[in-house]
Write a structure and sequence with these properties.
The protein is mostly helical. It is about 80% helix and about 0% strand. It contains twelve helices and two strands; from the N terminus they run H-H-H-H-H-H-H-H-E-E-H-H-H-H. Helix 9 runs parallel beside helix 11.
Length: about 260
Amino acid sequence: DVKRTHCKEKGEVVGLILKYILDLFGFYILSKANIIGVIQPFSFGLIFGLMWCGNNVLILAPSYVVANFLGGFSLSALYNALGVAIIILIAYGIHYKFRKRMVYWQIGIYGILSQIVTVTFSILEGGNPIFIVISLILGELFMFACIKIFEAIKVKGFAYKFSLDEIICAGILLMAISSGLGEFQLGDFSLIKLFGAILILLSSNVFSSQIALFSAGIMGLGVFLNSSSPILLSAFILWALAVSCFRGRNKIFSAFALLLV
């Protein structure tokens, strides 16, 4: 029993480490995500969503700063990330000290305050005020989408059917991730194509053809918003249709169908 307990505790620690590594990677990907190259609303929403769901802010804050600095690799990127991290830590400290549960309107205000440094730099660098406002509004909406889907996963897990609004929020998160992954291209290798192929195959075989098509469309839309090119949007939908034709048969056929399209 002692050995089993020790193995369980060790497994939980490893799982927690992997989770925070995934969070770090998520921060990095979303630091790259954008709409038409000028609107970057996604980065801060993820860390606020993770904080809301009880993740360790003392780990999240430095991870966020490191990931966003590496993503932008500039002093402004570092200062912007520090602005978010400081507000996150202050908010956490206030609610921890007074033992008060954070509510939606409060986290909304913290989200806006966390963007003061980003907005300031954008104005000083001659950014378009309209794009700055749009980025702030979309960032707040993305933050609440993250909160909604993370809460659903935390409470329900993946075993239960998600509601329509939870599916929409999951789609928004997937779209943002796809936009960020679309920035990674090394020669002929594209990270978003690899991610898209794997997700379409999993969605079709584990869930349904409809989920595969939905995922394909959302991923393609994310890349389209980033690059204004509809090529991958069309390709992902064709992949999903091809894979769905062989759903329920040998999984190798699905993989071959995807490769042939």
